[in-house]
Amino acid sequence: MSPATVVTIQVPAPLRQYCDGASDLRVSAPSVRAALEELERNHPALYRNLCDETGTVRRHLNVFVNASHVRDRGGIDTTLAPGDVVTILAAVSGG
Amino acid sequence: MPDRVILTIGTKKGLFVAEARKSRGTFALRGPFGPGVAVYSTLIDSRGTPRVLASSCNAFFGMKVLRSTDLGKTFKETKSAPAFPKEDGRALANIWSLEAGGDRKDLWCGVEPASLFRSEDGGDSWEMVPGISNHDHARKWQPGNGGLCLHTIVRDGNRMHLGISTGGHYLSEDGSKSFTASNQGVGVGFAPDPFPEFGQCVHKIARHPDAPARLYMQNHGGFPERPDIGVLRSDDHGRTWRSIAKGLPSDFGFPIVVHPHDADTVYVMPLDASTRTCPGSAPAVWRSENAGESWKRLARGLPKKESYFTILRDAMTIDELKSPALYFGTTTGQLWIGRDGGEEWSCLFESLPPIHCVKVAVV
What pLDDT, on the 0 to 100 scale, is given for residue A92? Predict the structure, then answer.
């Protein structure tokens, strides 16, 4: 893992069962897309909960980099800086 | 010796399991399993040691298949759920049907967008079945109100019938390698051509295993100008269909169920087409004992008025005891039992979440 691009992915509680209970995962990735690809390689069961077969982040999930929603930045191509925190949260939706 | 009746009840908020002795006196309820997540399909697989499977259709985290090997006391996710190949471009939106295949671990699964998957290891891995999933018609099918779903899988050796809404009835006679639209006599009320080759909004197909040539279909009826398209019968393995709706208060409805010991006895739950609720606000199951030539209303014990629920396509079933009982679940969360073939109804559970599907087995 290159120390220059290490970021933290915060895993929501319902999905920790898919990554051995980890609440945080450290990955080396220069973008959100690359971070998700890292999850696809190393935590495929977790990845399937986050993205559908086409690689699209599931509709009712929100991805934040630090405090910013990625939709307000570069979407999943949002670039990451060392030490960034990527947070994945379920949307407030349903009924 | 089978001595217990097991009911699986898929709801908007998870899966419930109810269990009773064969006398069906009191049903004990457990669940919800997969709490908070909608369940559209279950299978009580009684080949060998019974297993219970259920779809768990999570709007946040995607589709799962749950499996129980202790008659629905505990459930675990299978190792994977059906998923389209990455290059396909489609993404799984829902799991609508789980059916047992020929071998002990062979399973079939109908999904949304309308496609068919097969598992040969009891649900741990799945492969898309290209004969229907990549059919020339597949990209021309349209979603109905429930989505574009493959909801019905009826097997008969190498023959397989599929119900797709809105795609119609598709028939394979080569072990699911290839499928043909087989909708002669199956009409639509929402297109200029009343009898197209495909594109029908089939709601459910049922048959008796001892009479494989005869099939019953609840199609999307309720069109006054086309009164003969809603409830249909085929006597030639689904090649041609004809109306058996005469005598029913409405030819609209979702489920259709065949008696376990008599291929001529069939049950429907007519609904008002405009509201999808019980005609006159008085629910009734209708039974034919002559393959749809005439119908009798069965409503003893059911509400006589002020009932405005819907019974969805997989929410009515029948057990296989000598004097079978019918069961239906409502979108208002009631589960009803109709003992003695539907002659006498009572409510088993009155405040469940909205019910999508009900299955029963004697194990």
Answer: 83
